[in-house]
Design a protein that fits this description.
- This protein is mainly alpha-helical.
- It has 8 helices and 3 strands, in the order αβββααααααα.
- The chain has a 3-stranded antiparallel beta sheet with strand order 2-1-3.
- The protein starts with 8 loop residues before the first helix and ends with a helix.
Length: about 270
């Protein structure tokens, strides 16, 4: 829907909630007016996720290569604070020994924060540029407001949970954990399997949906402010909400990181 075709607040809000999608059957961009289909990719969410991941890697690599032992610059000091903050949390919460957990926690925290930070950009800035200069029918720039992205990240954490559970306990130990807890009797194996299975599967689901729900709600509030208020009065609500939203995007990145560490720490415990 072109900007000139948007005539009501409802159309404006609906337009901003549409992803730029690629139809895998025809490899053509999907018209936002078409009915939803399973065989599509949200290429805007994937694009911004990859770009922000590269920003994180390039920035941290550059600072690491140019780091000095003397008085650090502002960028080096900021990154050292982030690394130290993440490292302290890993030491406090992860009780095993692994060279993967700390880098993983740092990657999750910074990557999720950068994806969340996209929500602070003016709501019409990148979609208007994409529409006018690239001919894109729709564009959403907050990857963490796409449930496909958050659940994909949670699925990666879930695979690591299974890996560490089997690595530390063995297949037999992991199976016993699922079938003989909390009731240590063969009669209760079906009940234990249901209870432990639900507990295990709820971890990635809650991890992904929590991040998605908070970021989707934050994005929607910005869209509602822009769609329902005159342009000259939007700052009255958008500026205070943006200031408060800084806390939300940081907190959500921290929660995703902490829960990942806790889940992997639980998976690494030997019973």
């Amino acid at each position: 829907m072109a900007a000139g075709e948007i005539s009501t607040p409802q159309e404006y809000i609906g337009h901003h909630l549409k992803n730029l999608q690629l139809d895998l059957r025809t490899f053509e961009l999907v018209n936002p007016h078409d009915a939803p289909s399973f065989w599509v990719l949200n290429i805007d969410s994937m694009f911004f996720s990859v770009v922000l991941g590269l920003v994180f890697l390039v920035l941290f690599r550059k600072v690491a290569k140019s780091a000095t032992s003397g008085v650090p610059g502002k960028l080096q000091a900021a990154i050292e604070l982030i690394v130290g903050f993440v490292d302290n949390n890993v030491r406090d919460m992860y009780h095993g020994k692994s060279k993967v957990i700390a880098p993983l926690a740092l990657t999750i925290f910074v990557w999720v924060f950068l994806m969340n930070f996209m929500d602070l950009l003016p709501i019409d800035l990148l979609p208007t540029i994409g529409e006018r200069y690239l001919g894109l029918p729709a564009l959403r720039v907050v990857p963490s407001a796409d449930v496909n992205i958050t659940l994909s990240m949670a699925l990666g954490v879930f695979i690591l949970i299974l890996f560490y559970s089997i690595k530390m306990k063995g297949i037999g130990g992991f199976t016993k954990e699922l079938t003989l807890q909390p009731f240590n009797h063969p009669v209760f194996i079906p009940i234990n399997l249901i209870l432990e299975g639900v507990s295990l599967l709820s971890k990635p689901v809650s991890l992904g949906l929590r991040l998605f729900g908070n970021m989707y709600a934050g994005e929607l509030i910005f869209i509602l402010i822009a769609g329902l208020l005159p342009w000259w009065s939007q700052w009255v609500l958008s500026v205070p909400w943006a200031i408060f939203h800084i806390l939300i995007i940081s907190l959500q990145a921290f929660i995703f990181m902490v829960l990942t560490i806790v889940y992997l720490s639980m998976a690494s415990e030997e019973h």
